[in-house]
Amino acid sequence: MAGDPFLIGENMTGGYGRGADILHDCTVSVEKGQIAVIVGPNGAGKSTAMKAIFGMLDLRKGSVRIDGEDITRLSPQARVPKGMAFVPQTSNIFPSMTVEENLEMGAFLRRDDIRDTMDQVYGLFPILKDKRRQNAGELSGGQRQQVAVGRALMTQPKVLMLDEPTAGVSPIVMDELFDRIIEVARAGITILMVEQNAKQALDIADIGYVLVQGSNAHTGTGKELLEDPVVRRTFLGG
Ligand SMILES: Nc1ncnc2c1ncn2[C@@H]1O[C@H](COP(=O)(O)OP(=O)(O)OP(=O)(O)O)[C@@H](O)[C@H]1O
Ligand SMILES: [Mg+2]
After folding, report:
1. Contact assessment for residue 88 and residue 151, using Cβ atoms and an 8 Å cutoff
2. What is the whole-number distance in angstroms between the Cα of residue 23 and the centre of ligand 1?
3. How far is the CA of 88 from the centre of ligand 2 (A)?
4. Are 212 and 200 in contact (CB under 8 A)?
């Protein structure tokens, strides 16, 4: 559609299987090369919104579009060649495979030479190059998250979707990971991520969404949300 954002999940309504709706008219979008951040309390439906955009949920209403193309009815596998990569909140690496094998798995759909992309991932996360022969399961939490992000980048996505990429890592590692995510966005890859570290994430967000009970509660630039007294008091701890 003309004037569409690069990626949009619009008026998404639906839940899991035959269960009650989790998302209610929920809309999330992001412009090309920008960073969108979804925040909100536990159980708000943040991961569900990400899964819906990646096609892991049957929406009862609403649509998902990328670059103007309606992909609402496509399977997750069919969304990968459209340029989507999704790093889920849990089980996002193969622990008994090496770091390099994890990256190779990310590229399994590709038929071209993956060496350059792998070098780019190693350039972004140098520690992964040092540990490329080690099993991913032996890495620290922050390093595993780097493997997960790196694996997603191996598909050469247009949109990188990250569900809580900094979960369980120290503040220093979180800052570091956010810096790398900014770098990825500057390279032209659109970022949609869910974050528990709301303040820090909104600080790097071009656009932010506060979800509550599967609905949009507040939407604005990262700066607007950080300055909104209601958002501050209710979701950011003052
Ligand atoms: N696979 C599933 N089957 C059925 N219900 C689910 C499933 N996954 C999540 N839910 C329900 O959907 C609602 C939203 O969960 P979701 O995981 O999207 O929240 P969230 O905002 O990501 O929370 P958190 O911050 O804890 O990650 C919850 O009530 C949850 O119980
Ligand atoms: Mg979640």
Report:
1. no
2. 10
3. 9
4. no
As a whole-number percent, the residues of the chain with pLDDT over 70 amount to 99
Question: Tell me: the pLDDT tens digits for 157-173?
Answer: 999 999 999 998 999 99
- Quote the longest CA-to-CA distance of the chain: 51
Question: Counting ligands in written order, which one lies closest to the CA of residue 213?
Answer: 1
**Is the per-residue pLDDT at 40 higher than 90?**
yes
Q: 139-165: buried (b, 16+ CB within 10 Å) or exposed (e) per residue?
A: beebbbbbbbbbbbbbbbbbbbbbbbb
Ligand 1 midpoint to CA 37 (Å): 18
State which of 18, 48, 213 you would mutate to test the pocket of ligand 1, scoring each by most atoms of that ligand within 8 A of its C-beta.
48
- Residues in contact with ligand 1 (CB, 6 Å cut-off): 16, 19, 22, 40, 42-48, 89
**pTM, two decimal places:** 0.96
Residue with CA at minimum distance from ligand 1 atom 14 = 45
- List Cα–Cα distances, 184 to 69, 106, 144, 149, in angstroms: 23, 17, 18, 10
Q: How confident is the model at residue 218 (pLDDT cuts 50, 70, 90)?
A: very high
